[in-house]
User: What shape does this take?
Amino acid sequence: MSANEQAGVVVVGLGPGGEYVAGALAEAGLDVVGVEAELVGGECPYWGCVPSKMMIRAGNLLAEAGRVPALAGEAVVTPDWGRVAGRIRDEATDDWNDQVAADRLAAKGGRLVRGRGRLSGPRRVTVGDRTIEARRGVVLATGTRPRIPPVPGLEGTPYWTNRDAMAAKELPESMIVLGGGAIGVELAQAFARFTCVVTVIEGQGRLLPQEEPEAGELATEALRADGVTVLTGVRAQRISHDGTEFTVRVEGEEEPLRAERLLVATGRHTDLTALAVDTVGLDPMAGAVHTDGQMRAGEGLWAVGDITGRGAFTHVSMYQAQIAVRDILGRPGPDADYRALPRVTFTDPEIGAVGLTERQACERGLRVRTSVLPVASSTRGWIHGPGNEGFIKLVEDADRGVLIGATSAGPAGGEVLYGLNVAVHAEIPVDRLRHMIYTYPTFHRTVEAALGALR
Ligand SMILES: Cc1cc2nc3c(=O)[nH]c(=O)nc-3n(C[C@H](O)[C@H](O)[C@H](O)COP(=O)(O)OP(=O)(O)OC[C@H]3O[C@@H](n4cnc5c(N)ncnc54)[C@H](O)[C@@H]3O)c2cc1C
Ligand SMILES: NC(=O)c1ccc[n+]([C@@H]2O[C@H](COP(=O)([O-])OP(=O)(O)OC[C@H]3O[C@@H](n4cnc5c(N)ncnc54)[C@H](O)[C@@H]3O)[C@@H](O)[C@H]2O)c1
Assistant: This one.
């Protein structure tokens, strides 16, 4: 097949990673074509981070109002989902219209091609009946889609994914959430705080199973305090929908669960077959596009974002995008380094974590020292009162005397994480961390106490 168009670089998928690459390369003067099948900006601004955090912000306000009687008097609030739905429609997503983002790319000098792209050989991308030859190369940034588990009966029912939840104009009366990972716990709590009756079903033994066990316990307590029913270590056996409500049969439960909505939040996957990666010698059955430290996936081929399987987070896609841009422009720079990968689950309390969990460190054969201290034991935690649940957990490589992992859960737990992120990233000796000044009275003073408690 002969190429009928030319470009310097073709970026396939314009989520946070691809949009950054396309914009930065266009600003640097390259002839860039960005190919986007849906909305420029991707999952994060339209169906992910931004709208979900708007829901969470609103839900947290309601919960905070519920804490007023204990500390400050009376507060009467009437939850109104319409405010959240309206803000998501008008402020976050422009009613799911990406014109502003498309114009932003054009203003930087990039060319937008709307459609679903696929590789058609080295340095070639086909979109519909157009084939574009990229002189310098192609960047794959097509992200992920929800993974729908093969539960009997599920297919064909009007189940929700994150996309339906983000676009919900009305709050369902009840909702079953399949999956107790980041999406499941964040949305379960936000919907419950607006009075939706929520049940979470998590197949593993605890919520947030990728994180420390203490994080899962805290998330369970927080969700239960908001009235959410949390079932862990169980699987849905059969799902049906009778036109009005869902029925979910769960192993070990005599009575089936019933709810108006079913949200499937059981992880994400990427479809490399549809991208035709075999035309450039990559395995279409692989779960991700593997890259080297400069985000190179082959000759004239780079990949960034969720598709690389290095952590499905916007900040990872942006970090990788910066590296790919540097490499494509021929500027030297350090390889991608995931040792201090931070993540925050935006429940209330927020659960932030960086680096390795204790278990991951032990599995690597490292000799570890750990400590866990409750935020409530700090002066600030005690002053804060209701809503002060949380803890700091540290994981130290005992032989090197540096932190290799940490969890910061509590009020503003994601912000408190920053210092720990720096410590893990820069490998600051624990002994130096012990001898710095920690502002009084802050939540992060719990870190100082936790450093002293490492055993
Ligand atoms: C509910 C929810 C909440 C989240 N909250 C957070 C959070 O708080 N913090 C955080 O860091 N992360 C969060 N994430 C994850 C975050 O959204 C993703 O990690 C991020 O969007 C990944 O960016 P990306 O560039 O890899 O791809 P994506 O954002 O997935 O974008 C990929 C783009 O490629 C397009 N595309 C796909 N295939 C093709 C093709 N063949 N041709 C052309 N275009 C194509 C898609 O239409 C899409 O626009 C959340 C995700 C969800 C679902
Ligand atoms: N705050 C954030 O940064 C944030 C928020 C939301 C999503 N995200 C990103 O989006 C990605 C996708 O989120 P997610 O919550 O869908 O995935 P996830 O991988 O975080 O969690 C999925 C959960 O579903 C469970 N599960 C899988 N199959 C199941 C089944 N059949 N029955 C019951 N439970 C089952 C898994 O054990 C797991 O705990 C995450 O990996 C995360 O990186 C990030």
The pocket of flavin-adenine dinucleotide (ligand 1) is lined by residues 12-18, 35-39, 42-44, 48-49, 52-53, 116-118, 141-144, 162, 183, 275, 305-307, 312-315, 317, 346 (CB under 6 Å). The longest helix spans residues 49-66.
